[in-house]
Amino acid sequence: MLADVDELGRPISYEVLEPGTPVFSRDGARVGTVRHVLAAEGEDIFDGIVIDAGAAAQRFADADQVESIHEGGVTLTLDAQRCRELPEPSANPAALRADPSWGGTADERLVEKLRRAWDLLSGNY
Question: 20 to 30 A from 97, CA-CA: which of 33, 90, 103, 106?
Fold first, then answer.
């Protein structure tokens, strides 16, 4: 299913983004649904989203990779292929490559976000 941002409804805040909301690539392909919003509690900092990508797969999209959040869906800045390459949340994330075109965040910061996402998913928070 391809999405048109104009059909996704009004823009909303990450604070009211619901699990199960569809997630789309920049080229309109549905890449999954929102599982969790990752944010720094009490600091009003949006860190990204954990995406249910089907077949029990989960992916993490950093805040810099989220283009827009609407009532009917989230659009990422990445095309469908890059969305499939997003990292999985884990307790011990693999070493990441430094590639500014891939997301523009520091490796250490992303590794910490992946660990926090894993803690949230596994109930270790």
Answer: 33
Q: How far is Cα 38 from Cα 82, in angstroms, rounded to an integer?
A: 20
Q: Which residues of 26-42 are buried (b: 16+ CB within 10 A; e: fewer)?
A: beebbbbbbbbbbbeee
Q: pLDDT tens digits for 85-121?
A: 999 887 665 544 444 444 445 666 667 777 777 676 6
- Please say whether the beta carbons of 76 and 61 come within 8 A: yes
Tell me the CA distances in angstroms from 66 to 24, 46, 55, 122, one per residue in order: 10, 10, 23, 23
CB atoms within 10 A of CB 11: 10
